[in-house]
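Translate sequence into structure tokens.
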Amino acid sequence: MAFSNPLLLFGLFAILVPIIIHLFNFRRYKTVYFSNVKMLEDIKKKTKREQTIQQLVVLALRILGIAALVLAFAQPFIPDKGQKNKHGNLITVFLDNSHSMEANSENSALLYEAIDAAKSIVNAFDFSDDFVLTTHDFSGEESHILNRDQMLELLDKVQISPNSRSFEDIIAFEKNTALNSQKSNIIHYYISDFQKNGFNPAKLPTDSTASTFLIPMPIEERNNVSIDSCWFLSPVFKIGNQVTLMARIHNYGDKDLNMLPVKMYVNDKQKAMAAIDLRAGDYMDCRMTYSIDETGTQCALLVIEDAPITFDDKLYFTYNVTDNSNIIAIQDKENNRFLQSLYGKDSVFNYQTMPYTQVNYTQLKNCDVAVMSEVPKLSSGLADELSKFVKSGGTLLVLPAKEMDKSWNQFLGSLGAGTYGSLVKKELKCSHINTESIYFKGALDNQHEQLDMPVTLQHYEIGNGGSQGSEIVMLLENGASMLTVYPVEKGKVILSAVAMNDEFGNTHRHALGFVALHNIGIMSAIQDKLYNVIGADQMQTIPLRSATGDGSITLKARNSKTEFIPEQRSLGNETALYFHDQVQESGFYDIVKDGAVIGTLAFNQDRKESDLSCYDESDLKKMAKASGDNVDVIRADTKDIAKSVTEKLNGKPLWMYFLILALLCFLAEIAVLRFWGKPREIRD
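Result follows.
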């Protein structure tokens, strides 16, 4: 048997008090003479021996009662095997405050019950102990060692967080904070719903000298519907075009849903609506089609209605609608009249030309497509600017010259794109067109009919290069590539095996050649990022032209008073904005510079909290057993969690039994004094 408060055992000296009282309270008997002996018949008969026994019994009861009371306050217990409790504990508490904790338990929201459980744990320890609180916020207050009062005060401030940290990051943050404590006896508590997509038992603390307790919060109902993501079938937006949006709706619950309404708003105007049926545990890609009737940044919103978890019922996203694409043709000597006819006479394009010896790099940064038409060589300066242009999202179309020096292949090789080989002077037909490519998809009505293909008189061989994910758009009948696309970071390099002149054949006059090059100009405005995920996406780039001017860029929330200045860096043709967890709410954030709005970004909460599949108590017990003797599970619905914590930590408590013994002793003392020696009649 051991004691939680052994210093209180000094209270056993209190048993000296009844002993001293007993020693100095002996009654001395006197002889009394009576003239009439008959008067003694009604007197109680009590011998000296009987009174002594009574006093000794009372003394023993008092001593036993005081000793039992002192032992009760010393909190005796039978220690468990491997018990490590000692004075000076460091108690770390992880309190899950992610969006999944909005779900209901039997009595209230999980978060409130988790906070109550954490308070019960804290109150089970001494003021001399150190405390660490960790949530998904990773706030400054959580990076310090706390005393008991500070811990309780901080627990009152915990609210649902938009962040969803990995269990590995939580352990690392907690460990960093714990290093500031001098206490050697560490006890970890993890209060969570233990979602399967977030909790990794392999990352539990492995220190054999520390105790780890898992406290699962049981969810009463696991039904939840979420808008997981969205995307456009066509990634290019032009005014007057009809576009199709796909939205993935996921039913994470165990009940089928019928006619769930899904609404779409663009700039606060409802554009589309659908009603879908969803089976339990399944998802559906909902299709919405509408026409674009405005230019500029479009702020769109998808909405469903679902309770009690609502953070994933809205999905914010933005996309830009432009009037035209900016195309610059960098050429050898004379303007190519075929390029002029293709791009210069179409109102969809802003087209300009410049000789390769006099390139305006400022205009190059602001264009969408750079066409290198029959340029024989590249200067180091031009190659460097073209590299920045492509990597920051630009499209580079190369139409080869009849003679090209090694600077071209050095440049293309540095980007990981294909390289030009020898010039093959042989008449060949185009044998295959990739109709699934964005440059041809939807352009050919009857794909099964025999098409009239363009003919080449000479062409360059194109090597594969090191770029991953290259796409052959047009293929010659000898198996050589005629038009190939190479992705390079955010942009792409498109290599043509032929130039746009009669010496290379009739591709520049052919309808299929026209379709490919025309769509290259249109598809240059592809937007691949519709929104950012809070906590996961910490950076987004904007075009350099949007960030020009003096002063800093500010992000300002539309649906709240949130406003902050993000970290800003210039990256070639773009400006990178770094958020550093400054965004906490879903919604639209205007990019403000010099008092003017130059763009809008959309932010949404991470959807991994939408899936309410959690490990139950039996699963956690198996994991705890596999993790070692220092990991255990405590039921969160225990009526007295503080008692449960103490038992897990100290073993079987005995103070209640000693308290009952003390009360019985005092009651027995009263009974002895009240009923022992009751008068009885003396008979002759």
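Note: The radius of gyration is 41 Å.
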